Amino acid sequence: MANLYAQEASGDPAASASPERVVHRLRGSNESTTHIFALVEGTQPLGEVSPLGVPYIPSTGECPDYDYAGFIHISVPLLEEKDTADLDFVLDVNFLPLPGQPLDDDAQHVATTLVNHGLDLAQKMGRSTLQASSLHADGTPADADPFSAAYRAAGFNIKHAERQVKVHVPEYPATVLIPAGFSAHAWLDYDIPEDFLDDVIRLLTIASEDSLTGDLSVEPIQWNRTRLAEAHGRLRSRNAHTLMVALVDDSRQTVVALTELGRHAGSDPEVAEWTVTVTAREWRQQQLATRIKLFALTKLREHWPDVQRAYASIGVDDTAMNHIFDGLGATGISQSEAWELKA
Ligand SMILES: CC(C)(COP(=O)(O)OP(=O)(O)OC[C@H]1O[C@@H](n2cnc3c(N)ncnc32)[C@H](O)[C@@H]1OP(=O)(O)O)[C@@H](O)C(=O)NCCC(=O)NCCS
Q1: CA–CA separation, 175 vs 294, rounded Å?
Q2: Are 6 and 16 in contact, with CB atoms under 8 Å apart?
Q3: InterPro entries, alphabetically (predicted)?
Q4: Considering only CA atoms, which residue is closest to atom 3 of ligand 1?
Q5: Whose CA is nearest to atom 23 of ligand 1?
Q6: How far is the CA of 35 from the centre of ligand 1 (A)?
Q7: Domain chopping of the chain, boundaries
Q8: Which one of 33, 63, 112, 339 has the fewest CB atoms closer than 10 angstroms to its CB?
Q9: How confident is the model at residue 56, as a pLDDT?
């Protein structure tokens, strides 16, 4: 249902999460735990009651056939942001309006009920900074998301806005001029040479500290070797892959700019996700991010020849990233907002 909505909002069948990715997320990690709740029409399900006061519904084996009106997905970060919960809401297809149409009264009632339950459950989990997101077609207002009215009514405010873009990966990417004194490197699945590992860790932390997140309450991720090794382990266990492309200052043997792409098992093999791009603070505004991203297209062709399109989500106010993606010929597919409520 979430996929159906994302596909309709973006007009792109690739805008969806594979079942493998959802199941993997539900398994949780030492970084976060995720719970899914269902809003059921008709008779209340019977069964063992969870500590949050709602009955468990089996998700494997014999699954009862309830009349689902919608779902609530709650993720709680465990290492940083220990007051925060991320809430995701999904309307059952029967309540989902046709693209561009408003919600009818029944669907509005379901949306409001889901949001109110979500707030209640997240607070029972001890979280007081509650974040949710809206997604809608490019060029439409935030209210085009079926949950925006319910968020606003519950007291949420928009704190950050992003646009999702798609870049076509050319069959023969343009040759990129690597400035004299620098060399470009590509590492698959975190296979980073020992000499560059600490640089990469430092740059990933800087990316988290410096990326624009509007007025949203966020705490930067502090990367270290253990955390990177754990991320690598999770990647392997869900059969996902990353391609990291780095620009190295040869004289000092340090990484000065970095960009990363990812692929997920079960997702469309023609699609990659552009996750992080960062330039060391002292090297910014010298076209290094522009070049390393262009160079990444060549490496993408080389290592993942099936990939035809790369997707990214970039801050609406991020002048540099918007500029870089415009230069790569990116086209907008959808827009999203991060909403926040302090309970
Ligand atoms: C965003 C970031 C990667 C840009 O790196 P960079 O190496 O400075 O980028 P470039 O020098 O290639 O600049 C690209 C364009 O954006 C412009 N630009 C760069 N920084 C800018 C800024 N702070 N304000 C306005 N314009 C800026 C440049 O002038 C350039 O325009 P031009 O091609 O017309 O000259 C860097 O600022 C960064 O690491 N930020 C923190 C991490 C982050 O936010 N990453 C993006 C989300 S993952």
Answers
A1: 9
A2: yes
A3: Acyl_CoA_acyltransferase
A4: 278
A5: 320
A6: 37
A7: 2-162, 170-307
A8: 63
A9: 85
Stretch 102-125: mean pLDDT, rounded?
Answer: 96
Question: Among 202, 208, 279, 328, which residue has the most ligand 1 atoms within 8 Å of its CB, making it the best to mutate?
Answer: 279
* Ligand 1 centroid distance, CA of 284 (Å): 7
The half-sphere exposure of 275 on its side-chain side, counting CA atoms within 13 A, is 14
Distance CA 62, CA 137 (A): 38
Residue 82's pLDDT is: 93
Which tokens go with 189?
A: 């699945």
Give the pTM: 0.89
For residue 283, give the amino acid letter. Answer: W
217-239 residue pLDDT tens: 999 999 999 999 998 888 888 88
H or E stretch at 111: helix 105-124
- CATH class name, domain 2-162: alpha beta
CATH of domain 170-307: 3.40.630.30
| Residue 1 one-letter amino acid | M
Q: Quickly count: other Cβ atoms within 10 Å of residue 102's Cβ.
A: 11
Atom 27 of ligand 1, nearest CA residue: 320
- pLDDT in the model for residue 312: 95
Pocket test residue of 244, 273, 278 for ligand 1, highest count of atoms within 8 A of CB? 278
Contact 37, 55 (CB under 8 A): no
- Report the separation in Å between the CA atom of 6 and the middle of ligand 1, taken as the mean of its atom positions: 29
Pocket around ligand 1: residues whose beta carbon is below 6 Å from it? Answer: 207, 210-212, 257, 276-279, 284-290, 319-321, 323-324
What pLDDT shows up at residue 268? 86
| Fold match flag (2-162 vs 170-307) | yes
